[in-house]
C-alpha cells in the first residue's frame, strides 16, 4: 500500500554524520527530496512499532511552526526509521549550557514563548506531550525553539523509562498526579513547562540538582517548590509557580500562559 506517511527509501540518503542518540537509537542527518532531515533509526526492541505506525497518522497531521515536524516513516526494511524536520542547533538544554552567560533576557523569554506557543497548539488539538523538558525541545537555524518528541514515550519499551518507579522516569519534570497515579493531561504538561522555564532561566542546569528523585517527591508533597532562578524576573517566576499548583485545575492553560508570556515580552 502507498500510505502517505510511508517514505520510499529510494528518496532518502543518509549522511555519515550522527546528530545524537536517544531512547530509540541513533539520529542521523539525511536528505529526503529537497529537504535536510533528522532520521531516527529505531533500534530493534526499543519501540512498539505497530502502535507507533498507527499513531504516526495522527502525529503527521500535527503541524505548527513551533513543533518539530514528523515528515514520515520508513518501514520497508529494519531498522524502521522516522524522518523529522532537521534542527540545526540541536537540543535546547545543550544550547543553553553552551551559551551560558551570553543569552540576553529577551532571548530567554522568547524561548519560553516559542515552546508555549507549540504547547498551546498541542493543547488545542487535545494532544498530551507527556515528556516536556528542555532536552526534548530543539533549536532551529533561525534560533526558533520548537517542541519535539511529543507523545513518543507511549511507544518506549523500557520499564525504567515508562514506569514512574523506573530509574529513567523524568520525576523532576512530572506533576504529582503523574508520579502518584500516571494521570497525564495538558495540565500535567503545564507543570513540566514550569520546570522548563526554570531550566531556561538557569541556563540548562539540572532542577533540584542535589536531590534524588525520592527526595524530590517528598519535598513536593511537603509543598516545597523550585526557587526563583537568579536572573528570572519576578513576573516570570509567578508563572512558573502557578504551573506548580498541587491541583491540576488550579494551573493555567497553555493558551493563557502564552498570552501572559507574550505580554511580558512586549514590555
Ligand atoms: P530519542 O527520542 O530516541 O530519545 P532524541 O530525540 O533525544 O532521541 O534525540 C537524540 C539527540 O539527537 C538529540 O539530543 C539531538 O542532539 C539529536 N536530534 C534529535 N532530533 C533532531 C532533529 N530533528 N534535528 C537535529 N538534531 C536532532
From TrEMBL:
<feature type="binding site">
    <location>
        <position position="40"/>
    </location>
    <ligand>
        <name>ATP</name>
    </ligand>
</feature>
<protein>
    <recommendedName>
        <fullName>Tyrosine-protein kinase</fullName>
    </recommendedName>
</protein>
<feature type="domain" description="Protein kinase">
    <location>
        <begin position="13"/>
        <end position="262"/>
    </location>
</feature>
<comment type="similarity">
    <text>Belongs to the protein kinase superfamily. Tyr protein kinase family.</text>
</comment>
Amino acid at each position: 500500500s502507498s500510505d502517505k506517511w510511508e517514505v520510499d527509501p529510494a528518496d532518502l540518503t543518509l549522511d555519515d554524520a550522527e546528530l545524537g542518540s536517544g531512547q530509540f537509537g541513533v539520529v542521523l542527518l539525511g536528505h529526503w527530496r529537497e529537504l535536510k532531515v533528522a532520521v531516527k533509526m529505531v533500534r530493534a526492541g526499543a519501540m512498539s512499532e505497530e502502535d507507533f505506525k498507527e499513531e504516526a497518522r495522527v502525529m503527521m497531521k500535527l503541524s505548527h511552526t513551533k513543533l518539530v515536524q514528523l515528515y514520515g516513516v520508513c518501514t520497508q526494511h529494519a531498522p524502521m526509521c522516522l524522518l523529522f524536520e532537521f534542527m540545526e542547533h540541536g537540543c535546547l538544554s545543550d544550547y543553553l549550557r553552551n551559551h551560558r552567560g551570553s543569552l540576553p533576557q529577551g532571548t530567554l523569554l522568547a524561548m519560553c514563548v516559542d515552546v508555549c506557543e507549540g504547547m498551546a497548539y498541542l493543547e488545542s488539538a487535545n494532544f498530551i506531550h507527556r515528556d516536556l523538558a528542555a532536552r526534548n525541545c530543539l533549536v532551529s537555524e533561525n534560533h526558533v525553539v520548537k517542541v519535539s518528541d511529543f507523545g513518543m514515550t507511549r511507544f518506549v519499551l523500557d520499564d525504567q523509562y515508562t514506569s514512574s518507579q523506573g530509574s529513567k522516569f523524568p520525576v523532576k519534570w512530572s506533576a504529582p498526579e503523574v508520579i502518584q497515579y500516571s494521570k497525564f493531561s495538558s495540565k500535567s504538561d503545564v507543570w513540566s513547562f514550569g520546570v522548563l522555564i526554570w531550566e531556561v532561566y538557569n541556563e540548562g542546569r539540572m532542577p533540584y540538582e542535589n536531590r534524588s528523585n525520592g527526595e524530590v517527591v517528598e519535598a513536593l508533597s511537603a509543598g516545597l517548590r523550585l526557587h526563583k532562578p537568579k536572573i528570572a524576573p519576578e513576573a516570570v517566576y509567578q508563572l512558573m509557580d502557578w504551573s506548580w499548583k498541587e491541583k491540576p485545575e488550579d494551573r493555567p492553560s497553555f493558551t493563557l500562559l502564552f498570552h501572559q508570556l507574550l505580554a511580558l515580552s512586549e514590555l
